[in-house]
């Protein structure tokens, strides 16, 4: 027999609802600003950030999909669109015939370098400036704790 659902109490429900609304509104606004400022989609931006944070701008396709929390088909379509626009390139993996690498192109580096200053200003205006240093520290601790907890849970 299945266990009954563990419903959220009113305080838990309020915390969940507020978190979801904030996260959706923040991501939505940042995505619209990226599009308006640079012509890139939010998905373009997250892929380029993920790749350029690495010293060589190169990542296995499967690692990229996992890092951005996308299904492989979504990641494949996104990378294909970006490759057609010259922002990234796909390379075969010599050690693994089924594997592939995604690499930032010079145009991709130019695009992220142009978009990043505007993006960080929007992040600062919409999130950072709303919180005290103590609240930011708490947000970072809470976020890290939830991320660590999720890593221990089955997918």
Task: List descriptors.
155 residues, mainly alpha, Arc Repressor Mutant, subunit A
How many β-strands, per DSSP? 3
Count of individual helical segments? 6
Strand content is 5-15%
Multimer state: single chain
Low-confidence stretches: none
Give me the side-by-side strand order of the main sheet. 1-3-2
CATH names the topology as: Arc Repressor Mutant, subunit A
Number of domains: 1
CATH architecture: Orthogonal Bundle
Provide the helix percentage.
55-70%
Terminal-residue CA separation: 23 Å
Secondary-structure class:
mainly alpha
Radius of gyration of CA atoms, rounded to a whole number: 19 Å
InterPro entries: HTH_MarR-typ (IPR000835), MarR/SlyA-like (IPR039422), WH-like_DNA-bd_sf (IPR036388), WH_DNA-bd_sf (IPR036390)
Pfam families: MarR_2
Protein name: MarR family regulatory protein
Domain HTH marR-type: 1-148
Task: Describe this structure as you would to a colleague.
The protein is mainly α and 155 residues long. It has one domain (38-151): Arc Repressor Mutant, subunit A. Helix content is 65%, strand content 12%. The chain has six helices and three strands; from the N terminus they run ααβααββαα. The chain has helices at residues 10-38, 42-52, 61-67, 72-84, 106-126, 133-151; strands at residues 58-60, 88-93, 96-104. It has a three-stranded antiparallel β-sheet. α1 (10-38) crosses α5. It is globular. The mean pLDDT is 94.
């Amino acid at each position: 027999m299945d266990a009954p659902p563990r419903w959220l109490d009113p305080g838990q429900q309020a915390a969940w609802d507020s978190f979801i609304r904030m996260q959706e509104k923040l991501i939505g606004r940042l995505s619209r600003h990226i599009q308006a400022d640079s012509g890139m989609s939010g998905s373009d931006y997250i892929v380029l950030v993920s790749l350029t944070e690495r010293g060589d701008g190169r990542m296995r396709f499967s690692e990229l999909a996992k890092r951005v929390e996308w299904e492989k088909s979504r990641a494949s379509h996104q990378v294909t669109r970006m490759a057609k626009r010259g922002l990234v390139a796909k390379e075969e993996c010599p050690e693994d015939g089924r594997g592939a690498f995604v690499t930032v192109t010079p145009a991709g580096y130019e695009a992220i370098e142009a978009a990043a200053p505007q993006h960080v200003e929007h992040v600062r205006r919409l999130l950072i400036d709303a919180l005290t240093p103590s609240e930011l520290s708490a947000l970072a601790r809470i976020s890290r704790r939830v991320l660590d907890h999720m890593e221990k849970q089955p997918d």
